[in-house]
Design a protein that fits this description.
The structure is a single chain. This protein has ten helices and 45 strands. The chain is mainly β and 662 residues long. The N terminus is likely disordered. The protein binds sulfanyl-(tricuprio-$l^{4}-sulfanyl)copper (K7E) and dinuclear copper ion.
């Protein structure tokens, strides 16, 4: 009763604020500052801007209704951001070492992940990534808050972050593909996470083929990675790949509901331009824009899984591959023409429509899954492409086109029959209606409804829960590439600019800017915070984060010890406020030191750091966590070690000595 009473009061206060705003003044409740109009005036804002601030504001101590999982571009990380407040909550390192969390700074479990994420397919050990497209796990097409997958566009890699502790638990460096771009999505029950190649590569044993053998040797790859439902890990042995023609496969989405079992991958450079400007050839961007149509790839992935299970695959570098010819013969791959140089390929929440934006075409093109299925069944083909893949007739599968503006890229949805498309060239977002199968009235379908300017050159956009069957149409975030005049001059590399757009009124409205100074995020997904139910506050005592199980080398209070075995010294250390036990370590130069450190606290947020700076080691020990650090004590000296996290009033005293005797 008390709680609902409070909510009523809160609703009344918000109502009063809005009424006050509309009236241009506020009757009381704001303390000494006067009416909101006065405050707005004093700060040089319009009342409308103040109203926008109020809509985006999340009061101190309150949680945001949504959590945005943002890729981090060239930083190689993921970020968590609260929506609508646009407050940065967390950095999750994935492909790049990071010091605060100690990720890739000597702690065994994170070193293992990074090392496994760099296979001998690469010329060098990889130390960075270019994250583009996060994919949150789903159950029945809704986000379930268990895992998130993120690709490395620079390499054919994918990382998995466990949403129990929000740490990266796996990086897989996929064979047979060098790059990966837009093809990241999970299937509606997270049976698979999909990732496809960007640049086709030679499918030859040594990975080399001259460019004049492009059509014969180079292939695109669509990877279907099987997920362990308990841990979220990718099981490569149960996964499979499908060979695709050597086009540049791009953005992709999984079918859902009406289109469950299908996947859609846009592509460009179906011209197969290879460049060679200094060898008498033409620039790739010219060659790749020659044709009026490129191809939307349509994959029947449930059939593909059956084909793989029936053994109609070849093993290539440790993964089962369905060859292009098998994919054609088994009827699991089709193409549909899509207007020039498309970028986005997005499935509506009801699953009926697939929306494609053509960068060089002012329309979005909307396909209907029922028409696609019928065209496949009727063999309503416009011949084959030059690799023998059947091409569906454009007129037979296209449900409508909407002229939305210049440079349409990506589309998101509100679950109310509308799509929102980003316009890179126009620096705007256009809202348009879908068709009757999304609940749009006859006569109202496929129309441009609204347009809002954004600043500037928007790439992706995301609506709240917009990739799921439960898209709710509350907010949209525009991910803008340029920010020229939006922020003070702070050097020559400018921030990216996220903009929060309100979708709740009749017209879209920009509420807030969020400068992003950590890299170029390409895509985000926005999940209701209440769905993050797997999240834990504290590890169970003695947990190994890699396995989330009890660690064999956990140390309890009173059981700390140093054990020597020849030249190897095992240290079983505990950390708690405000000391390490033991706090003096004596070893001899040339010893191999293995330090098992356990944070024996069970209080949430009682994190300790453990750093031996001279040996370039740093770990973060969250309460209950066990970390192993291993090093050769090859430099003699007296080295101070310390806790790097301000954990208590006596944090500065939380230090000790590593004595390496000459
Ligand atoms: Cu999804 Cu930027 Cu990688 Cu479009 S991409 S913008
Ligand atoms: Cu522990 Cu500071």
């Amino acid at each position: 009763m008390r709680a609902s009473g409070r909510m009523l009061v809160a609703a009344f206060v918000v109502g009063s604020l809005i009424v006050g705003l509309v009236a241009g003044r506020l009757s009381g409740g704001l303390g000494g500052g006067g009416s909101l109009a006065t405050i707005a005036d004093a700060r040089g804002m319009t009342v409308a801007e103040a109203e926008g601030a109020l809509k985006a504001f999340t009061p101190p101590g309150k949680y945001d209704e949504y959590t945005m999982v943002s890729s981090g571009g060239q930083s190689g990380n993921l970020y968590l951001i609260g929506v609508p407040s646009m407050r940065l909550l967390k950095t999750i390192p994935v492909f790049t070492p990071e010091s605060w969390s100690g990720y890739g700074q000597g702690a065994d479990w994170s070193e293992t992940i990074l090392a496994e994420g760099s296979s001998d397919k690469q010329a060098r050990e990889l130390k960075w990534g270019d994250t583009h497209h996060p994919g949150l796990s789903e159950t029945n097409g809704e986000y379930d808050g268990r895992f998130v997958y993120i690709n490395d566009r620079a390499n054919g890699r994918i990382g998995m972050v466990d949403l129990r502790d929000f740490k990266t638990k796996q990086i897989v460096d996929l064979p047979n593909m060098q790059t990966s771009h837009g093809g990241v999505f999970v299937t509606p029950n997270t049976d698979y996470v999909h990732i496809s190649s960007m640049s086709p590569v030679p499918q030859t044993p040594d990975g080399y083929a001259p460019l004049d053998q492009y059509k014969e040797s180079y292939r695109g790859i669509s990877s279907w990675l099987s997920i362990d439902q308990g841990t979220g890990r990718i099981d490569v042995a149960r996964s499979f790949q499908i060979e695709l023609p050597p086009y540049t496969q791009d953005l992709a989405d999984a079918g859902k509901l009406a289109s469950d079992g299908f996947a859609f991958i846009g592509s460009y450079n179906t011209e197969m331009a290879i460049g060679g400007v200094s060898e008498g050839g033409e620039p790739i961007e010219k060659g790749a824009s020659a044709r009026d149509f490129d191809y939307l790839h349509i994959i029947d992935w449930k059939k593909a899984a059956e084909v793989a299970a029936a053994g109609k695959t070849e093993l290539r570098n440790g993964i089962r591959v369905i060859t292009l010819q098998t994919a054609i013969d088994e009827g699991l791959l089709y193409l549909a023409p899509e207007p020039r140089s498309p970028h986005g390929a997005d499935v509506s929440p009801d699953g009926n429509y697939i929306v494609v934006g053509g960068k060089l075409d002012p329309n979005v093109t909307i396909y209907d899954i029922e028409l696609i299925k019928k065209a496949i069944a009727d063999k309503d083909f416009d011949g084959n492409d030059e690799f023998g893949v059947p091409v569906l007739k454009f007129a037979s599968v296209m449900a409508g086109q909407v002229e939305v503006g210049l440079g349409p890229l990506h589309t998101q949805f509100d679950g109310k029959g509308n799509g929102f498309v980003s316009l890179f060239l126009d620096s705007a977002v256009s809202k348009f209606s879908l068709g009757p199968k999304a609940g749009v009235k006859a006569g109202e379908e496929f129309k441009l409804l609204d347009n809002v300017k954004v600043n500037y050159n928007i790439g992706h956009l995301a609506t709240t829960e917009g990739d799921t069957v439960a898209a709710d149409g509350r907010y949209l975030v525009a991910l803008n590439k340029w920010s020229i005049d939006r922020f003070p001059v702070i050097g020559t590399l400018k921030p990216q600019n996220f903009q929060l757009v309100d979708l709740q009124g009749d017209q879209m409205r920009v509420l807030a800017d969020m400068p992003v100074g950590f890299g170029e995020p390409h895509y985000v997904q926005i999940i209701k915070t209440s769905r993050l139910t797997s999240a834990i506050d504290v590890y169970a005592p003695g947990t190994d984060p890699l396995t989330m199980a009890a660690s064999a080398v956990a140390t309890e209070a009173g059981k700390e010890r140093v054990e020597r075995d020849g030249d190897t010294v095992h240290v079983y250390m505990t950390a708690m406020r405000s000391h390490f036990t033991p706090d003096i370590l004596r070893v001899k130069r040339g010893d191999h030191v293995v330090m098992h450190v356990t944070n024996i606290e069970q209080t949430a947020d009682a994190t300790h750091g453990f750093a031996i700076p001279a040996y370039n080691l740093q770990a973060s020990l969250d309460p209950g966590e066990v970390v192993t650090l291993e090093f050769e004590a090859d430099k003699a000296g007296s080295f101070a070690f310390y806790c790097t996290e301000f954990c208590s009033a006596l944090h500065l005293e939380m230090q000790g000595w590593l004595l390496v005797e000459p």
